[in-house]
Amino acid sequence: MSSAFQRLIRQTLLVAGMAALPLNLLPSAARADMLAVEKDELKFGFIKLTDMAPLAVAKELGYFEDEGLYVTLEPQANWKVLLDRVITGELDGAHMLAGQPLAASIGFGTSAALVTPFSMDLNGNGITVSNDVWAMMKPYVPMEDGKPVHPIKADALKPVVDKFKAEGKSFNMGMVFPVSTHNYELRYWLASGGIHPGFYSPSDVSGQIKADALLSVTPPPQMPATLEAGTILGYSVGEPWNQAAVFKGIGVPVITDYEIWKNNPEKVFGMTKAFVEANPNTTLALTKALIRAAIWLDENDNANRMEAVKMLAKPEYVGADEAVIANSMTGTFEYEKGDKREVPDFNVFFRHFATYPYYSDAVWYLTQMRRWGQIAEAKDDAWYAETAKSVYLPDVYLKAAQMLVDEGKADKADFPWDSDGYRAPTAEFIDGMTYDGKAPNAYLDSLPIGLKGAQTIEGSEVVGG
Questions:
Q1: Which domains, ranges and CATH numbers included, belong to the chain?
Q2: Model-level pTM?
Q3: Bridge partner list, 252
Q4: In the chain, fewer beta carbons within 10 Å around the N or the C end?
Q5: How many Cα atoms within 13 Å fall on the side-chain side of residue 151?
């Protein structure tokens, strides 16, 4: 049945007063409390990662159709292609790296006005090293009952990197995109162990100025093969590509992002500001559908996760083996082969207010852009707050949430109605440093490695103070 015909049925039913019929007797297009959406046929992009799950669930369980939306989900080759296609309007929205709409808004890489009303998940990434690097690290890793003590700090990697440098060899690592969570988490972990991950500058966007470890972009699904080929010695990526290295026997995930920053924000659902302004009801409708999907993914202590794994394993979504996806989607994470541990919050889609777009999450990403030179010059605290508010749309999110509560599809207690958009300060980082989203410059000043104050990169040197 075409979307135009379904729309006609819906309108006819409303005119005829048939909304009073039992829900099970109505076509699905007439069942929900419909918003008058401006655009009902939509195409959304995603990368083949498990954290695209809310999109798959919203489509597979009919949540988009309940809102009068007829959605096509289309995998994209890489993050750059995905971003460009949202900007040009070829995609109406997409599963995005949280840093992408922020970077676009400040003109780093690509300049465009992008926004997000919905944060897709917490945690979900890991850092994997090759078997050879793991063997070199292991003597420096504390052990208990014959197993490594977690979290494994980058202190254990530093002697390995130093050895490579002394031998005149590059220590190459992969991450998925210059403004990805994975890049910033990998950099954070390395720097916490005294390993410099390198600076960016306006004239050198390699990110390798003064670097001890050389980080470069590799698309997520290609990470294991690139590691196996020896082109990189380790990588930071989302699932299922860390667990894939374990299954293939080619590498060891040494740390998860949950251990680097507990309950860190991950992906967002990104759209152009122009789309949201032209289609406010469509934006509310799709946000409602995504919130419902997130609730389903986490409800009843993750009771639906194996069903979600089966969805994600389909070739049109992630297309990896169910066993690989389940290894991290069902409350566990396997490090060294056979060393599977309980990590109940490795993938969080709704609890801990995971889907609320916090300004403080946006500010953290901006601090890391400044820390590593992607933001070339100092900005005052007000700039960070204003930039976050120009991209993150918690008011839209809460409006959609209230509609779901009113419809009996969500619990009022599950949303942060009184939030000012900032999480409480936290020190739940691998290095114990405290982050306060309302004091970004003080936070930057507290970090031993990275730009602070008025410092800039000129040539290959840090100047200023």
A1: 3-123+265-414 (3.40.190.10), 125-263+454-463 (3.40.190.10)
A2: 0.92
A3: 129
A4: C
A5: 22
